[in-house]
Amino acid sequence: MKYTQRMFVAAAAAAALVLLGGCGSGDDDAPGGSSAPGATRLAVVATTPEVADFVRAVGGDDVTVTQIIKPNVDPHDYEPTPADIQAIGKAAVVVKNGVGLEEWLDQTIESAGFKGTVVDSSQGVTLREGGHEEDEGHEEESAHEGEEHDPHIWHNPLNAKTMVANIEKGLATADPAHAAAFADNLKTYTAELDKLDADNEAAFARIPADQRKLVTNHDAFGYYVDRYRLEFVGSVIPSLDTSAELSAKQLNDLVAKIKATGTKAIFAETSLPPKSAEAIAKQAGVKVIGGEDALYGDSIGPEGTPEGTYLGAERHNTQVIVTALGG
Ligand SMILES: [Zn+2]
């Protein structure tokens, strides 16, 4: 299945290259620009729902945003489509989450013949090392290159502030004529992020410290856990991406840990099937918070819904977690 899809994408990429090649030197055809009257909006491609929402917030009416990964789609094993390649080929700016989340992007950018600016929204964010293993006691870290970092940076609103600032800088550089508007939008949105952070703090302050225990579907909430001083007990999928599976022993260990720590619930996620979470919850004798209450771990909600924005999705998460833990 995947192989065929890849071949299709490769073929489409080749076709896109031919089309692009047909434009001559390309110098007279600025990326994202058009000589058609009225077409003055900056064409931006954003990879994930979160960064797409940030670009909409900062870019406002002066940008058109093509969002590659749709709501509630797992971003960890995304396969780009021919339409994605086309959109990137026509864009002036590509905005990515970064931290290795978009493994497919470099190849896609090359296939698309994209010559514009890539904005890595994670620039300047202090990254967490991968994993939550209790291995503090082990020997000196060798700090080797390519060590896995946690890509779920947006779950700390302070990181989101850095991300939107990077995006604003990228948009202003690509479209200086609208820089003042982008700066205004950034100011407004940054205030919203500060308010989100303060509201989250206040919400968790109402829960006793020894009850702030989190078991999630995959390991997506590390930055959130750190920011609001929660205890990460474990995850159903024991990794930062969504590919791993618990061994029988790990499963038993997690069940035991849930029981021993008095954890109250396992939180399912909108972009992952809840089946394993349900099985573990049953064994541990706790409830699964899912369905309408599933957390936005790797996504935000569909456009037009209250959770269809970053702010709405994050407020949903905190409300669900606080309600379940405060129980
Ligand atoms: Zn994830």
What's the structural blueprint in terms of helices and strands?
Blueprint lengths: L1 H20 L20 E5 L2 H11 L3 E5 L14 H9 L2 E4 L8 H8 L4 E4 L36 H18 L4 H27 L7 E6 L3 H6 L3 E7 L10 H14 L3 E3 L7 H10 L2 E3 L20 H17 L1
Helix pairs in contact: 1-3, 2-5, 3-4, 5-6, 6-10, 8-9
Bound molecules: zinc ion.
Describe this structure as you would to a colleague:
Helix 1 (2-21) packs parallel to helix 3 (82-90) and helix 6 (179-205) packs parallel to helix 10 (310-326). The chain folds into two domains: 2-123 and 149-197, Rossmann fold (3-Layer(aba) Sandwich); 206-326, 3-Layer(aba) Sandwich (Rossmann fold), CATH 3.40.50. The strands form two sheets. It has a four-stranded parallel β-sheet, with helices on both faces. Strands 6-5-7-8 form a four-stranded parallel β-sheet, sandwiched between helices. Helix content is 43%, strand content 11%. It contains ten helices and eight strands. With 327 residues, the chain is of the alpha/beta class. The site of zinc ion has 6 residues, from loops.
